[in-house]
TrEMBL record, chain A:
Predominant place of localization: membrane
One protein family per Pfam: BPD_transp_2
Organism field: Microvirga vignae
Matching CDD domains: TM_PBP1_LivM_like (cd06581)
Annotated coiled-coil segments of the chain: none
This protein's UniProt keywords: Cell membrane, Membrane, Transmembrane, Transmembrane helix
Name of protein: Branched-chain amino acid ABC transporter permease
A single GO cellular-component term on record: plasma membrane
UniProtKB/TrEMBL annotation, chain B:
Record-stated family: Belongs to the leucine-binding protein family.
Matches recorded under InterPro entries: BCAA_transport, Leu-bd, Leu_Ile_Val-bd, Peripla_BP_I
Protein name: Amino acid-binding protein
Phylogenetic placement of the source organism: Bacteria, Pseudomonadati, Pseudomonadota, Alphaproteobacteria, Hyphomicrobiales
Signal sequence residues: 1-24
Domain Leucine-binding protein: 26-369
Automatic annotation (TrEMBL), chain C:
Membrane topology: Multi-pass membrane protein
Organism: Microvirga vignae
The UniProt record lists the keyword Isomerase: no
GO molecular function: transmembrane transporter activity
Name recorded for this polypeptide: ABC transporter permease
UniProt key word Transmembrane helix: yes
A GO CC term assigned to this protein in UniProt: plasma membrane
Signal sequence, renumbered to the chain: none
GO biological process, one term: amino acid transport
Alphabetized CDD domains for the sequence: TM_PBP1_LivH_like (cd06582)
Annotated compartments: Cell membrane
Keywords: Amino-acid transport, Cell membrane, Membrane, Transmembrane, Transmembrane helix, Transport
Family assignment from sequence similarity: Belongs to the binding-protein-dependent transport system permease family. LivHM subfamily.
């Protein structure tokens, strides 16, 4: 049983030349959408910030699922590690937001190393189950250590000091949103460079054929482990952002449910493009928000129907649909 | 790709803007609760309580129309909780927040209240510490310590000196364990063993084996209501502990009315302490049950969160009355400090200092009614119970 | 000694419940290569049907089980025809997306029609009594569950290893195109094995209801457990699934007896250990 999806491999190598301007357009449109979100929905910034935090998590999953072919249902372990590290640091007097983000990234990367070391021992379904077991162990540990994590009551009372000493994290959430958006952009651009680098290419190669890569003389394990650390840092920053913007860290941030939801968002958007991760997160969470506001009792059916419809209409995820549309407009891109 | 992005953006925009709000004079109340997912039943009870109150007391206060907006928060998720609260306050312009089933969700909302100039009336979340996090919180439900404490004395009075405690390993479970231990040992009993079991336990027979081995004469249990309760009570019967005469004590979460049809015979004779039984005998409750049953659709689904919501709406109505429709959180909260009234559960009062509800706690026994249905029969009343959890902090 | 025996019996009963529910998933994942996360949803549908038949219509337990299995299979036919057939051979993650979508829909619909309360399936008198088995008393239905598990395991083994359908199924799994060319109607084989898997889920949902109570969230609540069991056993292997269920049942039950506080640590640490030692599960098929 090989748990890699073929959807990602299609977009991998061939179109290298024309890609740079597409990325510029892509990044500009993220900025435009981010700004549009700020102006159009000034009353929903907390939701948008939450979407950004989850988008970081989904991006981090794309790094290992979409680029390395390692299936995971436990990525929230890394997200939660970042969230709790930032939260605990904040409660203990480290209140500067940038420092907290760095702490979250470091904790996420460290957790990523642990997780990678264990998960890379197996393949396919077994790997998936290892990831589930790890996130459950993290969850149990956070629940058990209630003296420092607050257990199931949550870690409350995070008093984050103003960003750069000026901008407060308040009810309206402008600071948190703008900081989150900036963070997302920086991370996204950095990741674009990473996945296009020789290291990123090597990862894709491993995804497609680990045996051949090994035969070429490359060491597979350290390469994948490095990606796990990077992915952990990204997820950890997402967790730290969530902790800073909500001022509470709950057990849900290290749950299987969050991991599974995030994976669903990624597959919904499409694997292995980084754009898919963003599209999937925005569509899934936006849709969920809207239908659950319209009917708080029975919205789950609608979300289920959306997922089924996407599989039927665009098996490669929504981003493949976008490619198809733009492809048919401008001839072959 | 850009074209696609634009379409995408436009689509999301259209979706997000679809819920634009209405009139200025209407006073809006935002209710956050688990309306879907594993705790959907409790959320439905929130809604039933709110609708029952509005059906019995009208949909306007002093000429101000009251509009309720529900937001779904299926499981404990502080980030989503905060986002929902912020949206309700900033976008929907609600003047009052209510509901909240889980403690961490409440903890995520309380830091916003002062800036939002909005009081939060908690319909359920049962950890004592929430009240300390903001002066704008009022609670109309109960705390685990409050409902548990009388059991310590009950056990000793029944001649049980040695008890084993078995609780789910999470915040409320640990609160219950501590509260019971304190009360039981103060009354002269001894907790011989304290077991905390993982939340996702599905087979309870090994736990029952532990209970048997401990040699205790009674067992104190706390589990979240729903599926785990069913398995636990069944295992207690099937392993022969009930037949062996081991006494069973628990707060009323374990025998909530909506679980009783499923528990059936297995629950008969179980003693629990709680602030509200659907079968409570009073004219206020009769009216309430009738209205709430109509709102929820089926009598089998009615449970304790509905009364927390009902009284929560009462408090919110009083707040609206005191502020005459103007947004003034402090004045609103001040107005209900010391407020006392007769709730469907009996006489209650909002304690001025703690803003928590003081109420009767009842000892109940699961009995079979003349119609063949099981219900919680109140057999003893502990009047005017405050929250002992807060006193210790 | 008595305690050890007692724990072992509990472990056996719990393991067998897991087996009956999970073996269907193991077959879909191992033989048909479909990651059917909606497996629990079918078990739940069966539970609702059985509950309705036994409680509201007052039919017997055996009839209720039969109706539940048939009813669930009937419900699954259009799903197989219109949804699952599209994802045979798709990448696993696409299958995950589709089947999670189906699960969400099923949860939403059940919640709408049956409400969020727990549903029980009343047991017949003979099964609800405690039985004395020498060293302890045990609920009769636990013995019934153990027996069911043994029958299912034996029956499946016979079906797959000893009948002509089993030969066709194995051939289809090994090489669908070649089997097709040799005259095996692979579509039919797939449809039938899907129905068998669903039927097993239904049986498990009903007889396991005493352990895993029926409510709308059932479909998601136990998904992790099912996945873990299947992969520890090795997808597609009946004997592997039996071993996995017994081992995990034993670890879970003993863990919860000896150290309930750390029951989950125990369980998942064991899972990690087993998976590291047997990366394909106990008796997984070669890839």
């Amino acid at each position: 049983m090989q748990l890699t999806a073929q959807a990602g491999t299609v977009s991998a190598a061939p179109r290298a030349k024309s890609l740079w301007w597409r990325d510029v357009i892509g990044i500009v449109s993220i900025i435009a959408l981010g700004a549009a979100g700020y102006w159009l929905f000034p009353d929903n910034l907390a939701l948008l910030t939450r979407i950004i935090a989850v988008a970081l998590l989904v991006l981090s999953i794309d790094l290992i699922v979409g680029y390395c072919g390692v299936a995971t249902l436990g990525q929230a372990a890394l997200f939660g590690a970042g969230a709790y590290a930032a939260g605990i640091a904040c409660v203990n007097g480290v209140t500067e937001p940038m420092t907290l983000l760095a702490i979250g990234a470091a904790a996420g990367a460290a957790a990523g190393l642990v997780m990678g070391t264990i998960m890379l021992r197996a393949h396919g379904l077994a790997q998936l189950v290892l990831s589930i077991a790890i996130v459950q162990l993290f969850h149990e540990a956070a629940n058990k250590a209630s003296a420092i994590t607050g257990g199931s009551d949550g870690l409350a009372g995070l008093m984050v000091s103003p960003l750069f000493g000026i901008f407060e994290f308040d009810l309206w959430g402008k600071t948190a949103y703008i900081m989150g958006l900036a963070l997302l952009l920086i991370v996204f651009v950095a990741l674009k460079f990473i996945v296009a680098s020789p290291f990123g290419m090597l990862c894709r190669g491993i995804k497609q054929d680990p045996v051949r890569i090994r035969a070429m003389g490359a060491f597979v394990f350290p390469v994948l482990l490095k990606m796990f650390a990077i992915s952990g840092a990204v997820a950890g920053m997402g967790g730290a952002l969530a902790a800073i913007s909500t001022q509470v860290v709950g057990l849900d941030s290290v749950s299987f449910e969050l991991s599974a939801n995030a994976l669903v968002m990624l597959v919904l958007g499409g694997l292995g493009t980084l754009y898919g991760a963003l599209i999937g997160t925005v569509i899934f969470m936006g849709f969920e928000h809207v239908v659950s506001a319209i009917n708080p009792f029975h919205w789950m059916t609608m979300v289920g129907a959306l997922l089924i419809a996407v599989v039927l209409a665009a098996p490669g995820g929504l981003s493949s649909l976008v490619e198809k549309v733009s492809g048919s407009r401008g001839g072959k891109a | 790709m850009t074209a696609g992005k634009k379409i995408l953006g436009a689509a999301i925009g259209a979706l997000l803007m679809s819920s634009v709000s209405a009139y200025a004079e209407t006073i809006k109340v935002g209710i956050i609760g688990p309306f879907s997912g594993p705790f959907a039943l409790q959320g439905k009870n929130f809604q039933a309580g709110v609708e029952a109150y509005m059906a019995l007391n009208g949909k306007s206060v002093k000429g101000h129309d009251v509009e309720v907006i529900y937001r779904d928060l299926p499981a404990a998720n502080p980030a989503q909780s905060r986002a929902l609260a912020q949206e309700l306050v900033v976008k929907e312009k609600v003047q009052y927040l209510g509901g909240v089933y889980f403690t961490p969700d409440a903890m995520a909302i309380t830091p916003l209240l002062a800036q939002a100039n909005t009081p939060l009336v908690i319909f359920n979340a049962a950890t004592s510490a929430i009240m300390n996090t903001s002066p704008l919180v009022v609670r109309t439900s109960f705390t685990t310590a409050q409902t548990t404490t009388p059991l310590g004395k009950v056990a000793v009075d029944e001649g049980v000196r040695k008890v084993i405690t078995v609780v789910s390993d999470y915040g409320p479970g640990i609160d219950a364990e501590n509260a019971f231990k304190k009360a039981f040992e103060a009354a002269g009993g001894q907790v011989v063993e304290a077991i905390r079991m993982p939340m996702n336990t599905a087979d309870f027979s090994p736990i029952m084996q532990r209970v048997r081995d401990s040699g205790a004469a009674g067992v104190f249990a706390f589990l979240p209501s729903g599926p785990p309760t069913l398995g636990f009570v069944k295992a207690f019967n099937e392993t022969g502990l009930k037949k062996a005469g081991i006494k069973f004590y628990a707060p009323g979460d374990l025998t909530q009315e909506s679980d009783l049809p499923a528990l059936g015979e297995a629950a008969e004779g179980l003693k629990t302490s709680f602030h509200y039984a659907v079968a409570h005998d009073s004219p206020e409750n009769k009216k309430f049950v009738e209205a709430a049953t109509k709102a929820i659709g089926s009598a089998d689904q009615l449970s304790f969160p509905s009364v927390g919501a009902y009284d929560g709406m009462h408090v919110i109505y009083k707040m609206i009355e005191a502020t005459d429709g103007k947004q003034d959180a402090k004045k609103a909260v001040d107005a209900v400090k010391g407020l006392s009234w007769t709730s469907p559960r009996g006489p209650v009062r909002i304690e001025p200092e703690t803003r928590h509800i003081t109420q009767n706690i009842y000892l109940r026994e699961v009995a079979k009614g003349s119609d063949g249905k099981y219900f919680n029969k109140e057999i003893q009343t502990f009047p005017d119970q405050k929250d002992p959890g807060l006193a210790t902090q | 000694m008595q305690t050890v025996l007692s724990i072992a019996t509990d472990a056996l009963a719990f393991g067998m419940v897991l087996f009956i529910i999970c073996i269907g998933l193991s077959l879909t994942m191992g033989l048909m290569r479909v990651v059917n996360l909606a497996h629990g949803a079918f078990a739940m549908i069966a539970g609702y049907i059985a509950s309705y038949a036994a409680r509201d219509l007052g039919l017997g337990y055996a009839v209720a089980i039969f109706l539940a299995i048939v009813g669930t299979i009937i419900i699954s036919i259009p799903l197989e025809r219109f949804l699952y057939r599209r994802i045979y051979g798709s990448p696993e993650l696409t299958q995950v997306l589709m089947t999670i979508g189906i699960t969400f829909c099923v949860i939403g619909i059940t919640n709408y029609f049956f409400g969020p309360t727990l549903k029980t399936i009343p047991l017949p008198q003979a099964l609800s009594q405690p039985v004395d088995i020498g060293f302890r008393t045990i609920a009769a239905h636990r013995l019934f569950v153990i027996a069911c598990g043994a029958v299912v395991a034996g029956g499946l083994w016979y079906l797959i290893e000893r009948t002509s359908f089993g030969i066709k199924l194995r051939a289809t799994v090994d090489n669908a195109a070649m089997s097709d060319a040799l005259g095996v109607r692979t579509q039919v084989v797939y449809a039938v094995s899907f129905a068998i898997a669903i039927g097993l889920a239904a049986l498990g949902g009903v007889v396991g209801a005493e352990f895993l109570p029926i409510e709308p969230y059932y479909a998601l609540r136990y998904m992790v457990m099912f996945l873990v069991v299947v992969s520890v056993g090795g997808a597609g292997s009946i004997l592997g699934a039996v071993i996995a269920c017994l081992v995990l049942g034993l670890v879970d039950t003993t863990g919860r007896y000896l150290m309930p506080e750390f029951g989950n640590f125990f369980f998942y640490a064991a899972v990690i250990l087993i998976v590291c030692l047997f990366p394909r599960g106990f008796l997984g098929r070669a890839q």
